[in-house]
Amino acid sequence: MLKLDRLLSITMALLNTKRVGAAELAERFEVSLRTIYRDMESINQAGIPIASFAGQDGGYEIMEGYRLERQSLSLDDFASIYSALRGIQSAADNQDVAGLLDRIGALIPAKSDQKAALSMDLQWLSTPAEKEKIRLLHATIKENRLLSFEYMDFHGQETRRTIEPMAIYIKGYAWYVWGYCLTRLDLRVFRLSRINHLQQLQETFIRRNMELEDSPNKWVQQDAEPQVETVLRFKASMKTRVRDVFDPSQIEVEEDGSMKVTARYFTKEAVLKQVLSYGTEVKLIEPQEMVFQLRNHLAAISRLYDE
């Protein structure tokens, strides 16, 4: 982190917190205590009034009454932005986002009753391995470096790809990296969980004047087969779970309390996995070809345990 960025982040951290210790700041910004002391002096010289306190509860704080101008955004705007950034940070563990959180948080008064109407926690989206991939991808994108990796497509075929990475996205419950593929000579979207042996190359590139919206069908082409229309009948005991998973417009309650659900799935495999996950609480009604496949699948499972 550049010194100027660190000074700004420290200032925002102080604006957002009543008092912060030097050791805590040194650990957060990965510098020595001596560097923090010098930074505090620099911030003071810049005209931002900082007071220091000794003792067990000592540390630094910005004098009462000092604040930043919020310009044209309301407190509700800042609270919503802050909440969204916290959600992204919980999933990606990105230091740039952490610094931005400090800066945005500093613009919300500590004593304000303003609360975000929306709260997100995306921590469940990322495994430790994916967080490492995201960190490497983020650094590679910032530096305009080429990226090389092995990619497994929807059908299980592995190929070596080299891309000009442009952005990282969350779609549904998965992370994706989007960029120009030098192997396919076209824009491509790659699912992070299918990427292996990620390598940042020394070669740099000039970012192309393209956006993800320039390739609206890439999501479907690479990550889905023609959608499968299904009809499922759930037992009445599954009422809560059905409402958690499906939209009310998909649910038709029968006279006996059972529920007929009309749903679309991206693949036949997804249908089988979903139905099997509900055990005896659901019956697949349509399509008939999938009913036959399910029967064969169940027979194969039975034979496996008969051996």
Description:
The chain has four domains: 3-62, Winged helix-like DNA-binding domain superfamily/Winged helix DNA-binding domain (Arc Repressor Mutant, subunit A, Orthogonal Bundle); 75-123, no CATH class; 128-223, SH3 type barrels; 228-306, Alpha-Beta Plaits (2-Layer Sandwich). It is 39% helix and 25% strand. The chain has helices at 3-16, 22-29, 33-45, 75-92, 95-105, 128-142, 218-223, 239-245, 268-277, 288-306, and strands at 50-53, 59-62, 145-152, 158-171, 174-181, 186-191, 195-204, 228-234, 251-253, 259-265, 282-286. The chain has a five-stranded antiparallel beta sheet. A four-stranded antiparallel beta sheet has the order 9-10-8-11. A two-stranded antiparallel sheet has the order 1-2. A hairpin with a 5-residue loop joins strand 1 (50-53) and strand 2 (59-62). Helix 1 (3-16) packs across helix 3, helix 2 crosses helix 3 and helix 4 (75-92) runs antiparallel to helix 5. Pfam families: HTH_11, WCX, WYL. Residues 227-301 form the WCX domain. Keywords: DNA-binding. This is Putative DNA-binding transcriptional regulator YafY.
Q: H/E element string?
A: HHHEEHHHEEEEEHEHEEHEH
Strand order across the largest sheet? 6-5-4-3-7
Low-confidence stretches: 68-73, 114-122, 220-224
- Tell me roughly what share of residues is in helical segments: 25-40%
| Count of spatially separate domains | 4
In the CATH hierarchy, the architecture of the largest domain is: Roll
> How much of the polypeptide forms β-strand, as a percent range?
15-25%
Provide the structure class.
alpha+beta
The CATH topology of the largest domain corresponds to SH3 type barrels
Euclidean distance between termini CA atoms:
61 Å
**What's the average pLDDT?**
78
Query: Could you tell me the radius of gyration in angstroms?
Result: 26 Å
